[in-house]
Specification:
Blueprint lengths: L9 E6 L7 H14 L4 E5 L7 H4 L8 H5 L5 H4 L1 E2 L5 E3 L13 H12 L7 E5 L6 H9 L2 E6 L3 H18 L3 E9 L2 H18 L4 E9 L2 H8 L4 H4 L4 H15 L10 H11 L2
Parallel strand pairs: 1-5, 1-6, 2-4, 2-5, 6-7, 7-8
Antiparallel strand pairs: 3-4
Bound molecules: adenosine-5'-triphosphate (ATP) and magnesium ion.
Length: 275
Amino acid sequence: MASDKKNLPRVIAVTSGKGGVGKTNIVGNLAVSLSRMGWRVVIVDADVGLANIDIIFNLRPEYNIRHVIRSEKTLSQVMVESDHGIKILPGGSGFADLTQLNDGEKLNLLSEFEGLSDQADIIFVDTGAGISSNVLYFNAACDECIVIATREPTSITDAYAMMKVMSREYGTRHFKLIVNMVDSDTEAKKVYASLSGALDKFLKNVVLEYVGCIPFDKQLQQAVQKRGLIMDTAPDSLSAKALDEIAKTVGNSPARTDFNGSLTFFMQKAFQAAT
Ligand SMILES: Nc1ncnc2c1ncn2[C@@H]1O[C@H](COP(=O)(O)OP(=O)(O)OP(=O)(O)O)[C@@H](O)[C@H]1O
Ligand SMILES: [Mg+2]
């Protein structure tokens, strides 16, 4: 159980390069699974495109981070809570360009984020697709970076491109991999082998850790269509079981020691990355 864990929250980016590979569903379902294990989970929706974490939780947030930046609302007024007790911070287009914020706005965000520290054990940041600078800032600011890939060659190439640019521009050395929509474990291991092979060859100091895989599952798609999560609609399905296993691994993995851990620090790193 997580009740005795008094550490500062781990801030985990979930990213991919290629769009539509399952980031938002993975974040949502892992959050549900982890919260059932006793962890307090917050999700930051940093997808500035069609932000949709709220959709799979069937929530309709009224406000977003933009209202916090403008000091119109506090972070707790903007956050919405799911039936599972997961708190979601809707991004809207508020995270679109951190470089445009003036000092006062940055300070607002920094002090508001600090308040999240004692409300969460794990904070997931759903970064949205692509390797736009905004996605990179958030990856750089997080303590851990989970990359999602599928067996599609474009997804593998984009996942590699993401790790390459993160290591070159921000010195990120450690990534975790979840392979989604596979037919078998063997297929997932092949994706891992091809990515870690490329890293060994071209980016020697970057380490990719395999976390697990999720099978292709029509039931998951049906859940999305009903604005729901597979963890709720079909908890015994193969994909839900796989997500539970991954959640255990994520929950049990030790917090990195080479970070400060405070959320002020998280936003500061995001701002630094954006300058
Ligand atoms: N394991 C799976 N099996 C079958 N379909 C899946 C699986 N995971 C995701 N999908 C399908 O892929 C679609 C896209 O998933 P999701 O929105 O989570 O991806 P994303 O990476 O967040 O996309 P974006 O880059 O647009 O933010 C889902 O609506 C669902 O239909
Ligand atoms: Mg998404």
